[in-house]
Amino acid sequence: MEPFAQAHLLWLIPVLPLLGAFINGAFGLKIHRRYGEKPIHVVAILMPALSFVIAAYYFLQMTALAPEQRQMLNHLYDWIRIGDFNLPLAFWFDPLSGAMTLMITFVGTLIHIYSVGYMHKDDSYWRFFAYMNLFMFSMLTLILGDNFVLMFVGWEGVGLCSYLLISFWYRDLKNAGAGMKAFITNRVGDFGFIIGMFALLWALGGGWNASGYALQRPENLTLVFREIKLIAPLLLNEQIFGIAAPTFICLLFFWGATAKSAQIPLYVWLPDAMAGPTPVSALIHAATMVTAGVYMVARLNFLFAMSPVVMTVVAGVGALTALFAATIGLFQTDIKKVLAYSTVSQLGYMFMGVGIGAYWVGIFHLLTHAFFKACLFLGSGSVIHAMHHAYHKSNNHHDDPQDMRNMGGLGQYMPTTKWTYLAACFAIAGFPFMSGFFSKDEILWLNFANANTLIPGQVFWAIGAGAALLTAFYMFRSYFMTFTGKFRGSADTAHHLHESPKSITSVLKTLGVLSIIGGVIGLPKLWHLPNFLEHWLEPVFETAQPYLHWHHYSHGLEWGLMALSVVIAFTGFAIAYTLYKDARSKVPAQFIQKYPALHRVVYNKYYVDEFYQATFIRGTMIFSNLCDWFDRTVVDGLVNLSAFVTHQFSKLNGWHDNKVIDGAVNGLASLTGYCGQALRKVQTGRIQTYLYVLLGGGLVLILIRFVIFS
Amino acid sequence: MNQSTLLTWMIFAPLIGIPFVLAMPKDKTQWVRWLATAITAIPLLLGLYLVMNFDPNNTSMQFEHHFVWIPSFAIEYYVGVDGLSILMVLLTVLIAFIASIASWGITKYVRGYFALFLLLETGMLGTFCALDFFLFYVFWEVMLLPMYFLIGIWGGPRKEYAAIKFFLYTLFGSLLMLLAIIAMYYNSNPATLVDGTPVNHTFNIVKLITENDFAAKAPLLGFEFSKLLFIALFIGFAIKIPMVPFHTWLPDAHVEAPTPISVILAGVLLKMGGYGILRINYGIFPEAAKWAAPGVALFGAISIVYAAFVCLAQKDLKKMIAYSSVSHMGFVLLGIAAFTDQGMTGAVFQMWTHGLISPMLFLIAGVIYDRAHHREIDGFGGLANQMPEYTGLTGLAFMASLGLPALAGFISEFLVFTGAFPVYRVLTIISGLAIIITAAYYLYALQRMFLGKLNEKYAGLSDLTWRERVTLYPLAVLIVVVGIYPMPLLNLINKTLMSIVQVFKG
User: Quick one: pLDDT at residue B1?
Assistant: First the structure.
């Protein structure tokens, strides 16, 4: 094995937040009561910030290395070692995990800072920060783990934290229910993930040898990414259930990704997850956790690239999700719901990127999305915070502070929030030179040009371009409904509206700037500009390259498509401007009146939740009740029946004894009676007597051993 | 030969303590409790000493104590431990100690209770250490009797029914075992006792494993000898595990048993089934084991999935936990049926991790029962705010039981799946469904009990007491530590299990 640069402090990156979670989790309540909020958030912010510093240190070290040597290992100890199977507890820092770690710790720290203002005066302030730190630990473990199992630790860990944070305000059962839904849906995906893991192990091992009890290639029993990378071509010759091994395995892993990264068919939990506090939505349900599936596909590029079927499925599901979720976003009125569906949709784009084998561009969109979507979510949080506060002050307890129909004109009260939100809207809509423009356009172009999927890439391009139009429309719709026109609440409420505190606005400004300029890391080749990110990630995706093929179209076509993207973005903006600017247009209301059925179906998310409820969930509950009934009446019934039969049989025996035998042996009967009298004394019901008899028996046995047999 | 009386002292220390407990003045219940706990600390310390001095690279029996007991029937007193039993011994002494502290809440006939409790511990330890089949059977029965009284006297409303059901069901299994033991004895090869006396037949388990090949014996009642005996013994042990469909005694026993007895029952007693199958069935009848393996795996998978579904429908917290035990013990069967290094290790390790997690779950059920006097999951609500510490620990235990990675239960289930997948692909995938259902029933219970609005009826409930903390925290810490750093324990069992697996690979 080639020597790796050692990074002895790498483990601190995930463990520091874990420490923070432990401190606040175990002692937070007491600290909060005695010293107030300050020590809690100081600890909670310091830990991810330190992680960021360490990550930056190693990242800089790595830039100094030659591209093919950019790998750092921190092996702690052997976690599980049985037979030929060795699973190390080790962290792995390469260009991909490095970039992800930097983004996560950076955005994570920012959102922790934001939360200080947002969660101010919450009863469970300490609990919130403990969970957030625990999340950082899980997410960083997911990214830095050098093998599948460690990744799975993070994978499930982020699911747990997501559950804890969605149901953070658990006194409302609705929130608790949303948390449960998220966890269980994620478990449905995890089922695919673990089975994929076992299938991979089995296929690497090459199946059974002649004896039937040992693998042909036991030395290949490994779950370490970089080791699998070397032996992955072996899988091309293996089959599982008659399906090519890479296809079977990657489909299972992707099944896991559809749950974690909210793709069709397992996206349903994400919109409900908005029940959690808004910083959670920004950190977990936009910037980091939900991108884990994309990261996994990129990490496993050497497996996914082997199967055109899987590539088609990944890109296809991504494209469909991008479009499908965008249509739902059109009519939502809850500002966070709009952003939630937009996240689902944008994740679809990322899968379009990694699906077709353009791994770096999927990661590129992941990074830019982290900035602009976090900015959007935190902006919406700032709005909700202000609305909530104003309603509270004006004694309005019935209106929903998240409903955009209650907002309007907020721009004049909260200018920073407005401008940063607008900047992020431009980015996500793909306006020229904004971060989202570069990443989204590159995804669309590479989809157009790919020759790796079984369906022509132009189809994916068309779906993606359609979704881009919808995205531009519904994002600006949300902006105009929220920030322009006149405030639609009472004057009393309006009186109490004001900009959020500095901890919130400073974070918004930072992310707003990044939303605009973040694209510089991946400038298009078409413009003859350096593409830093693609070069940086190149060594990670090297192994996949032999499997990948691209059409070579003219620059003119590329320019043309790029121009079309720009047109699409402006069109979306223009429609939203006409229909929603200052709430002047009557068209939206008329549309709903004219097509009530269409609006109802889309507004209710095509009733997919209701469908799942009626089929899978109801089915499971019915089956479980059936099992319970079967257990009580049939299985246990048989046990009780056999007891009953034995009982009756002994009664019959007793009767036989009485009438038939007893008559003949009357003399014996009196003896029996006497014995019975004597024995009844034994049946005292006093536990001590039983015990002494028991002990006596034991003593007799010992005596027998020594006296009689010795 | 190297003799050591250490094991004997450990096994009989609780028994020796019984007269002292009984001799305590009747009205000094607090003294009795302290004394009983102190007595259970002795095997705990001895057990830890044994583990530290155990040589994991040696696959033969260690710390043997061996002398002739009843020479006319070739019965010996023979105890010893290998990697498999030392792990079970460690679990037993630990759980018994914790259960003795949990028993401080018992107020009825305290002396009698602890006397039976200590007798039970001797029975359990003896069963795991006995290497003479007759002795094994004696300990097996010694364990049964106090359990019957402990449920029947200190149990809940339907204690008589539950106790008799437990007793008769297990007795039925014991009867099969006894017949098998006698049949085996009369078909065994001549051997010599430890004092050099030659005998025609032997009860010595080590000799039965190494010096006898029952596969070649003449058929019995028209059945192949080794297969018939395998099935008889297997049913006896399967009842104990318990395996679906022989499991219905368990929910009743658990629901009626007092908390510490549930702890012992789930933590240790169920493991005797798995231990027995590995030691006796697999050791003595390897060919029959190979023959039966697909069936064992099938029943394991059925137990895992079926019991998980039944859990989802339960309304009584303790009953749900009881069924979850059935589900989790199914992993043991699936793992041992695979004959792979990982499957076998995972199965034995699952017994250990389940031995940590299920006692914690039953202690948790006990905490709420002591306060609210019922266990209806739907009858609570919003307890998280009222009892935050309790909620946190419950969350940890539930997460451990649903196999959250980096906690103890995950390691063993992961190993079982890894080991079983190559051999039983479809069954493993079906069993994998349990990870969804398990999450569903635990989270559903968590939600109904702890989240939502506080049920005003329970606004006065207090959080954990110090005694409860003393029982819960050690288990919680172990669950976390074993999940992160399982190697010391895996190393204990590794070589022994490899040698068992080797027989099947050969």
Answer: 45
> Does A187 touch chain B if contact means CB atoms closer than 8 Å?
yes
Q: How distant is the Cα of B486 from the closest Cα of chain A, in angstroms?
A: 7
Hey, which residues 486-525 in chain A have their CB within 8 Å of chain B? none
How far apart CA A202 and CA B352 sit, in angstroms, is 26
CB contact (8 A) between residue A635 and residue B244: yes
Annotate B75-113 with three-state secondary structure: EEEEEEECHHHHHHHHHHHHHHHHHHHHHHHCCCCHHHH
SS3 track for A210-234: CCCCCECCHHHCCCEHHHHHHHHHH
Residue A159 lies in a domain: no
List chain A residues with CB under 8 Å of B498: 83
Whether residue A286 lies inside any domain: the answer is no
Q: How far is B482 from B500, CA to CA, in rounded Å?
A: 24
Interchain CB contacts (distance < 8 Å): A and B: 181
The answer to the question of residue A693 being in a domain is no
Helices (H), A485-635: 491-495, 502-517, 532-541, 555-580, 587-594, 596-603, 608-612, 618-629
Residue A75: phi, psi to the nearest 5?
Answer: -90, 120
Identify whether residues A299 and A413 lie together within a single domain: yes
Mention every residue, 6+ apart, whose C-beta is less than 8 A from residue B63.
B4, B6, B7, B50, B54, B79, B80, B81
From B248, B406, B436, residue closest to A187, measured CB to CB: B436
Question: Under a CB-based contact definition with an 8 Å cutoff, are residues A204 and A234 in contact?
Answer: yes
Q: Same domain, yes or no, for A595 and A618?
A: no
Same domain, A576 and A667: no
CB B300 within 8 A of CB B331: yes
Residue A574 lies in a domain: yes
- The answer, yes or no, to whether ipTM is higher than 0.90 is yes
A chain contacts of residue B244, beta-carbon cutoff 8 Å: 635
The reply to whether B214 touches chain A by the CB within 8 Å rule is no
Task: Give yes or no for a cis peptide into B219 (omega within 30° of 0).
Answer: no
- What mean pLDDT is predicted for residues A183-203? 92
Q: Grade residue B210 by pLDDT with cuts at 50, 70 and 90.
A: confident
Biggest CA-to-CA distance, chain B: 74
The answer to whether residue B503 neighbours chain A at the CB level (below 8 Å) is no
Same domain, A580 and A624: no
User: What whole-number percentage of chain B has pLDDT above 70?
Assistant: 99
Does any CB of chain A come closer than 8 Å to the CB of residue B244? yes
CA A59 from centroid of its chain's CA atoms? 26
Residue A672: give the domain boundaries: 612-684
B452/A208 touch (CB, cutoff 8 Å), yes or no:
no
Domain boundary residue among A566, A585, A603? A603
Asked whether the beta carbons of B233 and B274 are under 8 A apart, the reply is: no
Nearest chain A Cα to B441, which residue? Answer: A184
Cis ω before B245 (30° cut-off from 0): yes
- Judged by a CB distance cut-off of 8 A, whether residue B19 touches chain A is yes
Count of the separate structural domains present in chain A: 3
DSSP B281: I
Q: Are residues A590 and A633 in the same domain?
A: no
Which residues have a Cβ under 8 Å from the Cβ of B82 and sit 6 or more positions away? B59, B60, B61, B62, B496
- Please name every residue paired with A72 in a beta bridge, in sequence order, or none if there are none: A5, A93
Same domain, A380 and A352: yes
pLDDT digit string, tens, across residues A623-669: 999 999 999 888 888 888 888 888 888 788 777 776 666 666 666 55
Interface test with A, best of B76, B348, B380, B421 (most A CBs within 10 A): B421
The reply to whether residue B425 touches residue A623, judged by beta carbons under 8 angstroms, is no
Shared-domain flag, residues A53 and A182: no
Shared domain check, A349 and A442: yes
Instruction: Compute the nearest-CA separation of B341 from chain A (Å).
Output: 6
Domain ranges for chain B = 1-284, 290-506
